[in-house]
Q: What sequence folds into this?
């Protein structure tokens, strides 16, 4: 297995994994309430994930 820092090109796939993990693995917390879920997912966009990846402290 190779582990590396994310790059901007990873943003779409990373965002999809992040969103899916919230929907599927955090159901006990958001109780599948669509309004709560929408708020949780609101900033989980490919553009935001790319910005998070680009931060100089992203892998510290």
A:
């Amino acid at each position: 297995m190779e582990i590396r820092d994310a790059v901007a090109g990873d943003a779409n796939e990373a965002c999809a994994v992040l969103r899916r993990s919230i929907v599927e693995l955090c159901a006990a917390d958001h109780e599948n309430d669509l309004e709560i879920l929408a708020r949780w997912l609101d900033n989980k966009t490919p553009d935001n994930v790319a910005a998070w990846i680009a931060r100089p402290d992203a892998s510290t």
Notes: The radius of gyration is 13 Å. The chain has a mean pLDDT of 95. The first helix runs from residue 11 to 25. The CA atoms of residues 11 and 45 lie 9 Å apart.
